[in-house]
Design a protein that fits this description.
Layout lengths: L1 H11 L2 H9 L29 H6 L35 H6 L7 H23 L3
Amino acid sequence: MPITFIRSLRRATPLKEVAGVVGRRTFAAGGAKKKSSKGGASGDGPKASLLTKEVKSTTVFGANILKEGQDPKILPDSEYSDWLWHLLDKRPPLSELRRKDITTLPFDELKRFVKLDNRARIKENNSLKAKN
């Protein structure tokens, strides 16, 4: 693909012209901004929000991924699925799972125990085999 593109450029325009256009330095329009002197108002400070507190509390800003559309509204808790509220629940670490009896663990915790135990054994084997 790149070779055919270069060949098509050779036919259309001389290679020196293409290299000249690509290799030119350009500068941004508008020029450089001057920094303020000591004691003056700084432009780096926090900007005042143009949104009211009421709008902030009812809308999720930045969640719209479409060019045309609106940010989603915050719904009451009853409108969301039950699984959503358990996403941030703390899950027990491997050390705590090792202290429990494996035969009485629920399936989810047993699955987590096997995964974490395998990961720990792999790390230990890798550290033993590593060249120091």
